[in-house]
Structure formats: C-alpha cells, structure tokens
Specification:
Blueprint (H helix, E strand, L loop, with lengths): L5 E15 L15 E11 L2 E7 H7 E8 L4 E4 L1 E3 L11 H8 L4 H6 L4 H9 L3 H17 L2 E7 L6 H17 L3 E9 L10 H19 L4 E4 L8 H13 L3 E6 L7 H8 L3 E4 L5 H10 L2 E4 L2 H6 L7 H6 L5 E2 L13 H12 L3 H7 L2 H6 L17 E4 L6 H4 L6 E6 L2 E5 L5
Parallel strand pairs: 1-4, 1-5, 6-7, 7-8, 8-9, 9-10, 10-11, 11-12, 12-13
Antiparallel strand pairs: 1-2, 2-3, 5-14, 14-15, 15-16
The structure holds N-(iminomethyl)-L-glutamic acid and fe (iii) ion.
C-alpha cells in the first residue's frame, strides 16, 4: 500500500472483467456495441460515487479502504436500468395467459372485460399500504436480478384519486427501498369502466383535471399514453401529451405495438424522451425517432408473452444508427417477467444483438431515456456507484445464459444492498 493512497469507503477487487459503456449520451449504431472491458480490475467507491476504476494494481496503488468486496474473478457490470415497467398492481392475470394459449388474443380478452380493466378493479379495491407492500416485494426481486433503477408507471387506477394513490405508492416504496424509481403517470392507459360509453369525456377529464392535479402534486416525472387503435388514437394522444408537456411533465409513449398508427412519428413530433414497444413501427417512424433523438425502448418479451407475430425491427433500428434501450415491460397482463437479463437474452436471440449491445441498451441508453445518463448507466469516475457483481465468466454469458439470475451482489449508491444467499 502506497503511503499516498487515498482512503475510501469500499474497494471492489478481484474483478475478472469490468464491462461498461462510456459517457453520458445514448450510444447508437456501431457505438452501441462499444464497451470498455478491463481485465483484472478494481473499483474504488467513496460515499455514493465511483472515485477510481481500472486495473487492480493501479487502483490499489491509489486507494485504500476499510471494506473490500471480492468479485471472485467474475464480471462486474453497471446496475441495470429497466426503462419500462408497470409494477403497481394487486392481482395477477394468469387466467388470461391460459386463455391466450387456447387462441384468444390480447385485444379480445380486453374487449371481454379482462386485460387492463381487470387490474383496475384490483388497484381500486386495494389500500395504499397493501399496494406499497406488494411493490416492495417486487423491488426486492428487481434488485436480486441486478436492476437498480426502475421506471414505474401507474395506469391501473384511472381515476384521479386512484392514480394519485398509485403515485404515492411509488413514492413511499422508493423511500424504503434501495431501488431507484422513476414515476410515470399513465392515466391514459385505457378508459375506466365508468367512462366506457363516453370516452371523449375521459379525455377531457385527463386534460382538465387529472394532468393538472398530477403535475401539481409533484409525484410524477413522466406522462405516458397507450396510443393504439382500441385505446387512445393519434389525435387524442397528441392532445394528452401536449398538455402533459405544457404542465412540465416529460414524455414517453406506448406506440405502434399492435397496429401501425404512426405513434413513433407522434413521439418524435412531441420531442418525447422515449417511444416504447414499436412492434409495428414504419420506416418513416424509425427515421423520425432517429432525427428527433428519441430513445426507442424495445420490449422483446412482450410479443412472446402475448403470442404476437410482429416483433420490433431491433436490428434495423440499430443499423440505422438509433440508440435503443431494452426493457422488461413488467406488468401482470402482457409480461409477468421482472428479469432484465432474460429480456436481454431475448433481444439477442430475436434482434441479433451482441452481448455488448445488450449491455449498453439496458444501462447507458436506458438511463439516458430517463434523463439520468449523467449520473447512471456506466462505471466511470464521477458516476453513481450502482453496480452488479455477477457470477459470469465473461460478458458474452450475459445473453448466452437464459433462465437464471447471474447476480452475486448488488451495490446501489455505494452501499452493498444485496448478496446472494443472505441479507446485505
Ligand atoms: O405495455 N401496452 C399497454 N400496457 C401494457 C399492458 C398492460 C396490461 O395488459 O395490463 C404493456 O404491454
Ligand atoms: Fe407497457
């Protein structure tokens, strides 16, 4: 140990391979696969920040710490960022899963009173405390799967009172749990049952009462809309999102998932931070997102889960130079899966993404889609110390190994918050 070594809180040593994107802006096209890979590395953490990273011998020369965590020669990655989830709900919807297996479609199930409406019933009859308790269990699972930041949508309340309840649930859970939550108001997820025969009135309610009250509450960073032929069309989506933006909320949109409505073009026109799903996106839509710098958020597990033939043209989106994120879309209906590593394996298999491309899409690009690229998404000096110690021998195993969690330990804001087989 050098006499001049700086004292820090924690050293992560014995890192077989430290793999991370670099920088704080979205990486697209060829840059998506550019990952810094340092062998025999170590990382120094002071408070919540990374203060040193590099070959272990160099890091040990510059830093000393009371506490050391040994990565056992395995891969260390930035904390994963899930840029699209719907985690505030009460009941599950496994019967719909079974119905789809026997031939019913997602839209047919919704039209028969299932789908989102079924989760709305669950949320409305469940207390804030109970919803918070359920969300906390899900946050434990995210953490055990290496996800340290989660975009969390409402959208199963669909009244001002129930949507605010869900936003408070997100706030309360975040205050008690290391996983960082990014709250999104999705009041325009569907029409509530009481507005079934007077849909335009619900749009007016969103514009005149719900959006202003949500903005005023300060509980949401983002607003979202389900732009789809059976829910909110292009015109209504434009009005809702324009109003949200006017009120100071940032935008992300569910677009071109089941039908090609031109939602991607709308997301570009509105200057949204992300356009999500994109299974039916047009070439014009891809070009528009590229020009406007909107991050495409791909959810490769969803078509698999709902039996949809169309899949997002992930490879084409990358080859045209765009910078996608990959997310789970965790929700009780169209994707009851919390594992971002699993979503990455499917992105590899369905879109032909390399392990390096998968890593950048679920870290730096996802963080940028949430306006957090300056703080999260890479392992560099000055960034927040959010990292995952895996049991993977090399980065390529990230997408190669399906069906199990590769996570040994997780550090969030410089604290060891998860260790496999025991409390941190
Ligand atoms: O992202 N597309 C809209 N919303 C969700 C599904 C929600 C649900 O079925 O409960 C999604 O797939
Ligand atoms: Fe979604």
């Amino acid at each position: 140990m050098e006499p001049s070594a700086q004292k820090v809180d924690l050293l992560v040593t014995g890192i077989g391979e430290l793999a991370s994107a670099l920088g704080s802006s979205p990486a697209g096209g060829a840059a998506l696969g550019r990952v810094s890979r340092i062998e025999d590395a170590a990382l120094a953490i002071e408070g919540a920040q990374i203060v040193g990273v590099g070959p272990e011998a160099e890091v040990r020369e510059s830093f000393e710490a009371a506490e050391t965590l040994d990565a056992a020669g395995k891969v260390v990655l930035p904390g994963l960022v899930d840029a699209h989830t719907h985690p505030v709900f009460a009941g599950t919807r496994e019967d719909e899963f079974e119905m789809r297996l026997s031939g019913k479609t997602y839209v047919e199930i919704a039209a028969a009173g299932g789908g989102i409406a079924s989760s709305v019933r669950g949320v409305r009859e469940t207390s804030k405390e109970e919803l918070t308790a359920r969300l906390l269990v899900r946050l434990d699972r995210f953490l055990a799967l290496g996800t340290t930041t989660v975009e969390a949508k409402t959208g199963y309340g669909l009244s001002l009172e129930d949507e605010l309840k869900c936003l408070e649930v997100i706030r309360d859970a975040a205050a008690q749990h290391p996983v960082e939550l990014v709250p999104t108001f999705l009041g325009a997820h569907d029409y509530p049952p009481e507005f079934k025969d007077r849909k335009p009135e619900y749009v007016d309610l969103l514009l005149e009462e719900m959006l202003p009250a949500v903005a005023e509450s300060g509980l949401a960073e983002y607003a979202d809309v389900f732009t789809e032929s059976h829910v909110f069309g292009i015109e209504d989506s434009r009005r809702i999102m324009a109003r949200a933006s006017e009120l100071g909320l940032r935008l992300r949109l569910h677009v071109d998932q089941l039908t090609p409505l031109g939602g991607a073009e709308l997301a570009a026109e509105l200057g949204a931070d992300s356009a999500d799903h994109l299974e039916c996106i047009s070439d014009e839509g891809i070009a528009a997102l590229g020009e406007a710098g909107v991050v495409p958020v791909l959810c490769p597990l969803v078509p698999l889960f709902i039996g949809q033939e169309e899949e997002a043209p992930g490879r084409r989106i990358i080859d045209l130079g765009l910078a996608p994120a990959v997310a789970t879309d965790f929700n009780p209906g169209s994707c009851y899966v919390q594992s971002l590593p699993e979503a990455l394996s499917w992105a590899a298999l369905r879109y032909g993404m390399s392990a390096a491309e998968c890593l950048v899409s679920a870290t730096l690009n996802a963080a940028c889609s949430l306006q957090r690229g300056d703080r999260l998404g890479t392992l560099e000096v000055g960034k927040q110390a959010d990292l995952v110690i895996t049991d993977l021998p090399r980065l390529e195993h990230l997408s190669y190994e399906l069906g199990r969690s590769p996570v040994q330990a997780v550090i969030k804001r410089g604290e060891v918050v998860y260790q496999r087989g025991g409390a941190a």
